[in-house]
């Protein structure tokens, strides 16, 4: 990846949206992607963690690690995760969700001096 794009999104299994940021993988379920695109509702960003108890047993846990929401103008989508805040144009997200594009880049939003975020 280059310096400008900090992550990518692409379609995953069963219509979910996979989010790759640095070395971590997050996802948004297909139902949540539909409600985000069509109704503008915020959706949780999920992550599945695996833990090995011993050589035979693995524990899978899914947790909410952030949220996805439209900006106030309705033209961009904000991804807020434990890795930071990222933005993507709504048009690019729609193309990936519909399967017209394989993937799209995420761009990191730089924090403000006062501790906020430029939106």
Distance, first to last CA: 23 Å
Number of strands: 8
Helical proportion, percent range: 10-25%
Order of helices and strands: EEEHEEEEHE
Low-confidence sequence ranges = none
Shape: globular
What is the topology, as strand order, of the major beta sheet? Answer: 3-2-1-8-7-6-5-4
Largest sheet properties: 8 strands, antiparallel
Sheet-strand content, in percent, reads: over 45%
Mean pLDDT: 86
Give the structural class: alpha+beta
Helix segment tally: 2
In total, the number of domains comes to 1
Rg value: 15 Å
Write the layout of secondary structure elements.
Blueprint: E1 5-11, E2 17-21, E3 24-28, H1 30-39, E4 43-52, E5 58-70, E6 76-81, E7 84-89, H2 90-98, E8 103-108
Antiparallel strand pairs: 1-2, 1-8, 2-3, 4-5, 5-6, 6-7, 7-8
Q: TL;DR of this structure?
A:
The chain is α+β, with helices and mostly antiparallel strands.
List keywords for this structure.
119 residues, alpha+beta, eight-stranded antiparallel sheet, 8 strands, globular
Descriptive report:
- It is a single chain.
- The chain has 119 residues and is of the alpha+beta class.
- The protein has one domain.
- 16% of the residues lie in helices and 49% in strands.
- The protein is built from two helices and eight strands.
- It has helices at residues 30-39, 90-98, and strands at 5-11, 17-21, 24-28, 43-52, 58-70, 76-81, 84-89, 103-108.
- An eight-stranded antiparallel sheet has the order 3-2-1-8-7-6-5-4.
- The longest helix is centred in the N-terminal third of the chain and has 10 residues, at 30-39.
- It is globular.
- The mean pLDDT is 86.
């Amino acid at each position: 990846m280059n310096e400008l794009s900090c992550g990518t999104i692409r379609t995953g299994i069963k219509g979910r949206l996979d989010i790759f940021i640095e070395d971590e993988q997050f996802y948004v379920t297909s139902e949540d992607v539909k409600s985000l695109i069509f109704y503008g509702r915020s959706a949780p960003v999920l992550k599945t963690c695996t833990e090995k108890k011993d050589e035979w047993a693995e524990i899978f846990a899914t947790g909410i690690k952030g949220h996805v929401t439209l900006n106030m103008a309705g033209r961009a989508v904000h991804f807020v995760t434990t890795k930071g805040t990222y933005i993507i144009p709504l048009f690019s997200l729609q193309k990936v969700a519909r399967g017209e594009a394989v993937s799209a880049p995420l761009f990191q939003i730089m924090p403000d001096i006062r501790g906020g975020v430029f939106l």
